[in-house]
Amino acid sequence: MSIPEFVKPAPSYWQYLPYFKHLRGVYLFGKVYLKKEIYENLNNPSPDPYFESILVHELKHKEQVEKTGYIIFSIKYLFSRNFRLNSELEAIKAQITFLKSKDIKYPYIERTAKALSSWVYLWAGDYAVIKTVLDSWVRK
Ligand SMILES: [Zn+2]
Q1: Helix (H) and strand (E) counts for the chain?
Q2: What distance in angstroms lies between residue 91's CA and the mean position of ligand 1's atoms?
Q3: Segment 104-133, tens digit of pLDDT
Q4: In the chain, what are the domain boundaries?
Q5: How many CB atoms neighbour CB 123 within 10 A?
Q6: Ligand 1 center–CA 44 separation, angstroms
């Protein structure tokens, strides 16, 4: 997977920020920022497929933002629990599909369901519901 120009390593001070330190990647102001070790790994000749899937996830967010418009997307993402959950699930689905194409099972169902139902994603949805959805996608 080649890395597009708009993909950047996250600035190192992010690890000290209460919110950003929880993120492995984020799409912000037209750029994808990835944790430094992920960004560096993707520049290897044989990158970790899971790290590649994080880029796939963020590229899906880029597509969503471009479709909806940056301002509208940001407002909806911030204020609508459902919109936030659906945006994330769509990005995770892209990630799961990518990993499946490489015969890899998405390994973080519980962790993802926990994060999405926590403050990190402003309680986007219910743990059990999210876990059931992810389980069904991974099994398919
Ligand atoms: Zn996301």
Answers
A1: 6, 3
A2: 6
A3: 999 999 999 999 999 888 899 999 999 999
A4: 7-104
A5: 14
A6: 24
